[in-house]
Amino acid sequence: MKLKVGYEELIARAMAEIETVPQEKAQALLGDPDTVFVDIRDVRELEREGMIPNAMHAPRGMLEFWVDPDSPYYKPIFGEGKRLILYCASAWRSALATETLQKMGVPRVSHLEGGFSAWKKAQLPTVDKASKSHSA
Question: 27, 37, 70, 112: least surrounded by Cβ within 10 Å?
Fold first, then answer.
């Protein structure tokens, strides 16, 4: 099967339209109250690899629903006007997700250069995924 547009072209198109935050700049933004790191990886990836400290987990499959105020799944953190830095493992999913949010009209959205893999390779801070507490 021949596709009209493959994943590499989709990523290249997205990268041409979005802001990519270099690792060093992202590290400097850790702890900035006006910046939210958004981890869009699958929960199994978070459990296996860890996360950026204080990052919010927003699964890629739910992101658009969590961002849209008209959605029953809306998460208010996305409407606070904070700078959003999306990341995934290798910056492919985050590039596509950032482009989508930009098209939706989300201001101040960007993604992390190289993704979480590059973050870990640079030995930048990581934390284990916090487990959800279960109520009886």
Answer: 70
